[in-house]
Specification:
Chain lengths: 114, 112
């Protein structure tokens, strides 16, 4: 089945040690998103790519960066994780941006910071 | 500013006890209203999209409806496997074009 795949499912890192989370998709969608979701909270959009165009949310900390080397893959880099960055990170894709386009989510990566 | 409010925050039902979840929204130019199901430790799973007032969609025991101010997710004769957090999100025009604004979710627990 076509899907959005996130790796790893669980990631443990140390305070200040860079970490990279991975997302791949077989849907051939144009748009890929990264969300942060903390316990009992709604997902919060960090940034998205429309094809190769990167769009950062105004309140996304500089500590978070992203790369999209091709249509299928997108990476989330956290340069110096703090304790407050422990969360579930969700990748999503959609065929288009806006216009009622449905976002499909991966299973998420649970990040722990020690 | 787009706003989405879901109620109740938590709902406990007995198996077979039908009920409804509410999603009230205020947006500038609705492009779509989305319902997702999220199981603990997993990503949101897409359920329905509604685009205009009066629209209804059904899937198994779930039925979603939409008015100009709110959406309902009706659950008929729920089973324990329907237990999850149900998220409502809107996509609007204006300055937030293309983005999803989520509600806080309703945690549904169905007891056997």
């Amino acid at each position: 089945d076509a899907m959005v795949i996130q790796n790893p499912r669980y990631q443990v890192t140390q305070f200040g040690k860079p970490v990279t989370l991975s997302c791949s998709q077989t849907l051939n969608h144009n748009v890929m998103y990264w969300y942060q979701q903390k316990s009992s909270q709604a997902p919060k959009l960090l940034f998205h790519y429309y094809d190769k165009d990167f769009n950062n949310e105004a309140d996304t900390p500089d500590n978070f960066q992203s790369r999209r080397p091709n249509t299928s893959f997108c990476f989330l880099d956290i340069r110096s994780p703090g304790l407050g960055d422990a969360a579930m990170y969700l990748c999503a894709t959609s065929r288009d941006f806006g216009g009622g386009s449905i976002q499909y989510f991966g299973a998420g990566t649970r990040l722990s910071v020690l | 500013e787009d706003q989405v409010t879901q109620s109740p925050e938590a709902l406990r039902l007995q198996e077979g006890e039908s009920s409804s979840l509410n999603c009230s929204y205020t947006v500038s130019g609705l492009r779509g209203l989305f319902w997702y199901r999220q199981d603990p430790g997993k990503g949101p799973e897409f359920l329905f999209t509604l685009y205009s007032a009066g629209e209804e969609k059904e899937k198994e025991r779930l039925k979603a409806t939409l008015t100009k101010k709110e959406s309902f997710l009706h659950i008929t004769a729920p089973k324990p496997e329907d237990s999850a957090t149900y998220l409502c999100a809107v996509q609007a025009g204006g300055t937030s074009y293309g983005k999803l604004t989520f509600g806080q979710g309703t945690i549904l627990t169905v007891h056997p």
